[in-house]
Design brief:
Blueprint: H1 8-17, H2 51-57, E1 64-67, E2 74-80, E3 83-86, H3 89-103, E4 109-114, H4 120-127, E5 131-135, H5 139-148, E6 154-160, E7 164-167, H6 176-192, H7 197-208, E8 210-219, H8 222-238, E9 243-244, E10 247-248, E11 251-254, E12 272-275, E13 280-286, E14 292-301, H9 308-329
Parallel strand pairs: 4-5, 4-6
Antiparallel strand pairs: 1-2, 2-3, 6-7, 8-14, 9-10, 11-12, 12-13, 13-14
Helix pairs in contact: 1-6, 3-4
């Protein structure tokens, strides 16, 4: 589904060129329509945005893929126990990173993600002998890193957790159409081996540790709200907690200072990272466009002999608790 956007005919044409002709568009959402009549908000991250696609897919499809209206982002859903589960932006990015690195013939590959995206990319990169860099949010920063490092490494993939991906050097921005075709390639290859996309995800978790990610946004509109957000950032910068929900904070990085010691793609910005060691991290920053304080939590656990799907749900619950505890520390109920 193009979600009433401009990607429909272009995606179908590119899939056909790649050999995928068994494609069923969602008819109610295929033609461009700026009123977006079938969704409350035309963002594939929004709950309910893929409901029509999932309902149609239940008639026999193996994969759901979606673009946002301007077709620069990609969402996907996969079948699980008779229903379709939407993958997170981090899951799609990590699966694609592993796929691209497995198939590249580049001698010194570079993969990049934004700093609020999953750190699991570092482990995947290391396993493939690739270099990993993190940047500020925005593909301009991902591509600044790629261009600055071009004498030493070759960019092969980058992503942001908000469903933005870029494969190879051809489009120096997020590209939902090319990435969609490559994601279908990956899923097709897995199917030929008798594996599902989720099978591959859980194998990555077994190899690199299971990572889960969650976000919590604290909305504080108006002048008074802006003051509360500033006060929260000052608190986390000057008096960070010793632990969050019982997990020790091992290191604090304040990205509002020390920019001269970092590459230009990690310039000065109001962002604080609380490292939880091997268990993960917490990031806190104000939104750049909305009256929000944003809390990002990434937690990690070894799978061992646990059922990874059960562990994933337990760890996600813990991540939500950590996000709530962080908000409470900052003075927000």
């Amino acid at each position: 589904t193009p979600l009433h956007g401009v990607g429909g005919e272009h995606v179908v044409r590119q899939l056909a060129a790649a050999g995928y002709t068994s494609v069923t568009p969602v008819p109610q959402q295929y033609e461009p329509d700026g009123h977006f009549p079938t969704v409350s908000f035309p963002n594939p991250e929004e709950p309910g945005a893929l409901d029509l696609a999932k309902a149609l897919a239940a008639e026999g499809a193996e994969l759901v893929v979606a673009n946002d209206p301007d077709a620069d982002r990609l969402a996907a859903a996969v079948p699980v126990d008779g229903e379709f589960r939407t993958l997170s932006g981090n899951q799609i990015g990590l699966l694609l990173a592993d796929y691209v690195l497995t198939h590249t013939d580049v001698e010194h590959p570079l993969v990049v993600n934004s700093i609020v995206s999953s750190p699991m990319l570092g482990s995947i990169a290391a396993a493939h002998g690739a270099r990993w860099e993190q940047t500020l949010t925005g593909f301009k920063w991902i591509w600044n890193a790629a261009l600055d490092l071009a004498d030493d490494v070759t960019y092969v993939f980058g992503f942001e957790e908000a469903l933005g991906y870029s494969v190879g050097p051809y489009v120096r921005d997020k590209d939902g159409i090319a990435t969609l075709v490559i994601f279908v390639d990956m899923a097709s290859g897995l199917a030929r081996r008798g594996e599902s996309v989720l099978d591959r995800w859980y194998q990555l978790a077994a190899d690199h540790g299971l990572w889960v990610s969650t976000q919590k946004s604290v909305v504080r509109p108006g002048t008074e709200g802006a003051g509360e957000i500033r006060a929260a950032m000052e608190l986390i910068e000057n008096s960070p907690p010793a632990d969050i929900d019982g997990i020790a904070v091992e290191q604090v990085t304040d990205f509002s200072v020390g920019a001269e010691q970092r590459p230009r793609w990690l310039a000065e910005t109001p962002l604080v990272e609380l490292s939880l060691g091997a268990q993960g991290r917490v990031l806190v920053r104000p939104s750049g466009t909305e009256p929000k304080l944003k809390i990002y939590v990434d937690l990690r656990a070894e799978v061992g002999d646990r059922d990874p799907a059960v562990l994933e749900q337990e760890l996600l619950g813990r991540a939500n608790t950590v996000a709530a505890a962080t908000a409470t520390y900052l003075g927000f109920d």
